[in-house]
Design goal:
The chain is an alpha/beta fold. The protein is built from 9 helices and 8 strands. It has an 8-stranded parallel beta sheet with strand order 2-1-8-7-6-5-4-3. Helix 2 links the parallel strand 3 (55-56) and strand 4. Helix 1 runs parallel beside helix 9 and helix 4 packs across helix 6 (132-143). Bound molecules: 2-phosphoglycolic acid (PGA). 2-phosphoglycolic acid is lined by residues 8, 158, 163-164, 194-197, 215-219.
């Protein structure tokens, strides 16, 4: 199984020029790597970045029509985009995504033939209450409700408290959650870790926690650091 390393640029950078420079530097550095490396820039950069696997950070579940501000899975597929992140905790927190809307998006993306990076993870509060597994189970079961073919689904375990905080999840705790998630998917489903991944901690998630890759936010905006992370997974 190939490792999957995805860079989630979130709402960065601020210009097409910077996006191109960052993309080119990453593309150059991943030529001979064994992992599948996917760059997920803001949508408006997707059509100009070429020559390496791309992912979007979100979709809407309808194909077309009067949905101001939205982008469909069909449009992304037509551009040659291969992946889409669905259910990221920032979308759940700031844009009202629920397990139900995540489920609609997953179904549409699968129908259109996009590969999915399906994010799940508990908040700090849920973790303190000992609810981590309950939350993961709910997010997975409801997110994948009535989904029969999960071959194109990759799951990202992203504890919300670890995202963008510098407080990455320990290898032991990550392993526990990944092993738990494994019960609800196939043995060959790719399960990756995300949350304050840096080159100092990245290798351990793959070598010790059983992750099949990484979802990298902040550190994916620095080509050199991102490439170190990619190499740590080799
Ligand atoms: P981070 O973000 O690496 O900046 O913590 C990860 C993510 O949100 O996917």
């Amino acid at each position: 199984m190939k490792n999957l390393i995805a860079g989630n640029w979130k709402m960065n950078p601020n210009s097409k020029k910077e996006a191109q420079e960052l993309f080119d530097a990453v593309k150059k550095g991943i030529k001979d790597v064994a992992s599948e490396v996917v760059i997920c820039p803001p949508d408006l950069f997707l059509s100009s970045l070429k020559g390496s696997a791309l992912g979007a950070q979100n979709i809407f579940w309808e194909e077309k029509g009067a949905f101001t501000g939205e982008i469909s899975a069909v449009m992304l597929k037509d551009l040659g985009v291969e992946y889409v992140i669905i259910g990221h905790s920032e979308r759940r927190k700031y844009f009202g995504e629920t397990d139900e809307t995540v489920n609609k998006k997953i179904k549409k993306a699968l129908e259109v033939g996009l590969k999915i990076i399906f994010c799940v993870g508990e908040t700090a509060e849920e973790r303190e209450q000992g609810e981590t597994q309950e939350v993961l189970q709910r997010q997975i079961q409801q997110g994948l409700k009535d989904v029969v073919d999960i071959d194109n689904i990759n799951v990202a375990y992203e504890p919300v408290w670890a995202i963008g905080t510098g407080n990455n999840c320990s290898v032991e705790e990550t392993k526990e959650s990944i092993d738990f998630i494994r019960k609800f998917v196939k043995p060959e489903t790719i399960i990756i870790y995300g949350g304050s991944v840096k080159s100092e901690n990245s290798g351990a998630y793959i070598k010790q926690a059983g992750a099949n890759g990484l979802l990298v936010g902040g550190a994916s905006l620095d080509a050199e650091e991102f490439l170190k992370i990619v190499k740590s997974a080799e």
